[in-house]
Sequence to fold (509 residues):
Amino acid sequence: MIEVKNLYKSFGENDVLKGLYLTVEERKATVVIGRSGIGKSVLLRCISGLLRPDSGEIFIDGDDITKASRAKLLKIRSKIGMLFQEGALFDSLTVFENVAFPLAYHQLYSEVEIERKVMKYLEIVEMEKFVDAYPGELSGGMRRKVAIARAMILEPKYLFYDEPTSGLDPYSSAVVEIMIKKLQSELNITSLIVTHDIELTRFIADYIALLENGKITAMESRDMAFTEDSLVYEHFIKRRERIRAENGY
Amino acid sequence: MPVKKNEAANEWLYAGKSIIFMYGSFSYWLFKDMFPYRQLGEQFIRTMLEGFATIMVGAVVQGLFLAWLGGYYGDRFGAYIWIGTATTFSIFRETSVLMAGILFAARVGTAFTVEIGSMSMSGQLDALRLMAVEPTQHIVIPRVLASVITLPILKAFSDGLAIFSTMVFLKMWFGVSFPIFLEHAFEFLKPSIITLSLIKAGIMGFFVALNACGLGYYFTGGAVELGKTTTKSTVINFLYVMIIDLIFGIIVELTGWGTV
Fold:
């Protein structure tokens, strides 16, 4: 389980996270939604240990990563896989080499074993026919799928997704959504997704947390969040309609 | 506009900090964990291929320039016999290493800044960290060490080509035959001059690559900022090359290691 307590993070005079609390249940998909630039990616980077918060605690399976030594942090990070915005694939490596990279670098398996594992995950994300392609030759959706395979290759307990469908057309978005859902149901992974994509949220979320003013202001189950009585619905989902109405449309 | 002046000053301050942080990070990670032998090999081949053509063109231009200068003054003062000595000495001691360093900074150094800056911008450096791979170790150290090896080798090739092109141009324009040129060409060339110029090239390669990698590594922003950072990389590295050359010049004069 992941527990975030009283988290603060600022950049200069810009206070991004202001006493944030969040709990991510095991084997569930928790989606953090909020406006662009509100601090969703900052939250994800703090939880994954890529950014050091100004204060607060982040417990991953009971270990506080804000106080962890480098060795401890590396051990905790081995439980985490992350899909970055745009995929963050290595341009100079092929699809196969990208997915194999963490295994080959750390020399965790023999070459035969690495090939078997890479092909297994490329088949899960339906990219096994593109092993020799370079990221520049793939569409946005395909790059995300390869990035998911790379995030999965070390078999992490937690998988973080940073805006997994941003910039994708509806078809590619749907393919990525299905991929996330499939991993969630088949491999029982604990997922933490940050997005402002309502359709994605509706499709994959078990729980929805609303990030506003540097804090989680509401945390609801998916069934609850899409009802008229919901705070998430009132503050985020319905906002588009409200802004249109305020402007006379 | 005072605001813009402050912005520019802050950008240069940040560039300076990036370079200093990279010196620290490089020193810290150089002997930690696994040494990236494979990446070092890859970067050696890459820097050789990228730097070769540019530095060789520079060597030919250098030969052209020295032939014109040497031929003109040789003709004026009737000192053809010493043209070989003067041009060879200046190529080995100063011009070849200076030109190789500047061209290496322009071709390879800027490529490092853009490449690592783009990796930072697209999250690839964070992706490495999350895979428990330290980017300084995987990305920076191989590029820097490869440059330390590559630049002296390219400089040595450049020496040979610059002397040859000087000979060819002197023959074409001033009718100085190869035997006359070669008669005294290597007379005053001591091994210490060649050794010092190769060491100087190695040090230039080290700082050019380290500065360029540091500016890319700590880069933040978008395409416009990356363009500005690349310009800074070029300017800073040109200055470094000239300062290193100057320091070596002073050392040579003080110790007498490279003088005739």
Summary: Chain B touches chain A through eleven residues (CB under 8 Å). Residues 86 and 193 of chain B are 14 Å apart (CA to CA).
